[in-house]
Design brief:
Elements: H1 6-31, H2 35-52, H3 59-79, H4 90-102, H5 105-129, H6 138-144, H7 146-217, H8 224-253
Helix pairs in contact: 1-2, 1-4, 2-3, 2-4, 3-4, 3-5, 4-7, 5-7, 7-8
């Protein structure tokens, strides 16, 4: 990523972090307005926003940190008779999406299983020990269901990127094969042209040299100036034949 795109990337990270904690902060006003609850949720929100900023680089670590902090503040809040918004589960969902999208399948599946086990254990403990009005019901289950959904969306995004990368690679391979075939066809055409030129031009030059040598063999019947012209013609024919061979060799090699 270029430096020009760095501000946009950071802004996007900040937006994701804010979106993940904003619902819980808004809902907290109707859940519990005690100082203990706001302090716990505020600290958790700060940690979640900071951690989500590096979710693509360290997705598993970010998920573990956010999940552990959420469990800690939930336990501390319960001990202090404070209640946090059930929407506080959203930051782990964002982190779990990053796990599914940027981590190997085995590790991301393990993270989902561990997270699900911890959530299930927490819900059982809460149901057994919390007051009736704090136990929650279908609304809590619906929010917890966001976690596997987020993970599945992340896995789907990872698969989509893999398909796009494979398609781009196939396109590059096809383009490379096309260029190679074009180069091979051009080389074959050069060889054909060189062969045809050699057959025609070399034959004509050879005949020219042969005729010149024949005339030169009868130079006794020619005046001096004619003998000189015949000698020059034969030499020029031999030189042209050699140069033509060199030129055709270059044409075959494709260096022109």
């Amino acid at each position: 990523m270029t430096r020009q795109n760095e501000p946009a990337r950071r802004a996007g990270q900040a937006v994701v972090g804010a979106v993940s904690v904003a619902p819980a902060l808004l809902d907290q006003a109707t859940t519990d307005t005690s100082a203990a609850a706001w302090t716990a949720l505020g600290g958790y929100a700060v940690v979640a926003v900071a951690a989500l900023a590096v979710r693509r680089r360290w997705p598993l670590t970010v998920f573990c940190v956010i999940f552990a902090v959420l469990a800690g503040v939930e336990i501390a809040s319960a001990a202090g008779q404070a209640r946090l918004s059930s929407l506080s589960v959203l930051p782990p969902a964002f982190a779990l999406y990053a796990v599914g999208a940027h981590s190997p399948r085995r590790r991301s599946t393990a993270a989902l299983a561990i997270g699900g086990a911890v959530v299930a254990a927490g819900m059982l403990i809460n149901h057994a020990t919390a007051p009736q009005e704090w136990r929650g019901g279908s609304d809590v289950l619906a929010l917890v269901a966001v976690l596997p959904v987020a993970w599945a969306l992340g896995v789907a995004a990872r698969g989509h990127r893999a398909l796009l990368a494979a398609a781009e690679q196939r396109a590059e391979d096809a383009d490379r094969r096309t260029r190679l075939e074009a180069e091979q066809a051009a080389a074959a055409e050069r060889v054909r042209i060189a062969r045809d030129m050699h057959d025609v031009v070399a034959h004509s030059l050879t005949l020219l040299v042969v005729h010149a040598e024949t005339v030169r063999a009868r130079s006794d019947d020619l005046p001096p100036w004619a003998r000189e012209r015949v000698d020059a013609l034969a030499a020029a024919g031999r030189q042209a034949t050699g140069e033509m061979r060199d030129l055709l060799g270059v044409l075959r090699d494709g260096t022109v």
